[in-house]
Amino acid sequence: MAAPSLEETIARRVHGHWLTWLVGQQVFWVSVAAVAAFVVLALASDVFATQQNLFNVTRNFAFVAIIAIGMTAVIISGGIDLSVGAVLVLSGMVIGMAMNGGMSIWLAVPLALGASLAVGAINGVLIAYVGVPPFVVTLGMLSIARSLAMVLSNNRMVY
After folding, report:
1. Are 95 and 73 in contact (CB under 8 A)?
2. Percentage of residues of the chain with pLDDT beyond 70
3. Residue 137, Cβ neighbours under 10 Å: how many?
4. Within 10 Å of residue 91's Cβ, how many Cβ atoms?
5. pLDDT by residue (tens digit) across 26-63?
6. For 105-145, how does the pLDDT look when each residue is reduced to its tens digit (9 = 90+)?
7. 113: left (phi > 0), else alpha (psi -120 to 50), else beta?
8. What does 115-130 look like in DSSP terms, one character per residue?
9. Which end of the chain is more exposed for a tag (fewer CB within 10 A), N or C?
10. Which own/partner pairs from 87-90 qualify as long-range (CB within 8 Å, at least 24 positions apart)?
11. pTM
């Protein structure tokens, strides 16, 4: 029997069964694993599938999801930003220290957004105009932002 031609192979790949395509997708298997973990945990514990626990999981995941949406745009465009978590910590520390000092939340939030904007502007200028690779810039900014947050709080918890 002769080997299939290139056209036959492409036609088989393009017009294959939808189930074959679905099983070949990584997203499918990640979703299956997440559903399996949910089912196992729901069966193993009486408190996992409660409304209160699911609310807590959703609330605690919300800020990670917001950052992930922004990082998706960065990664799709071919970039990388290693400093996202440290900038989040820095902006949180700016809000915390400002409010701890008696400032209103209406002033503390714009102050924190300004700090984050300044960090992003520095990253952007170094990458776009100076020509430093994004990996190097954001790795350095990770250390700088984390250090600034530690200095700002005197390395202590702020309530």
Report:
1. no
2. 95
3. 21
4. 21
5. 899 999 999 999 999 999 999 998 999 999 999 999 98
6. 999 999 999 999 999 999 999 999 999 999 999 999 999 99
7. alpha
8. HHHHHHHHHHHIIIII
9. N
10. 87/116, 87/119, 87/120, 87/141, 87/145, 88/63, 89/145, 89/146, 89/149, 90/115, 90/116, 90/119, 90/145, 90/146, 90/148, 90/149, 90/152
11. 0.69
How far apart CA 149 and CA 159 sit, in angstroms, is 15
Position 128: which residue type?
A
111 burial via Cβ count (<10 Å: 0-12, 13-18, 19+): middle
Torsions phi, psi of 24, nearest 5? -85, 0
CA distance 126 to 37: 43
Q: What percent of the chain has pLDDT over 90?
A: 65
AA identity, residue 100: N
Q: Where are the domains of the chain?
A: 1-49, 80-159
Nearest to 141 by CA among 90, 69, 75, 68: 90
CB atoms within 10 A of CB 156: 7
Query: Among residues 60, 63, 81, which one has the least CA distance to residue 71?
Result: 81
User: 15 pLDDT band (50/70/90 cuts)?
Assistant: low
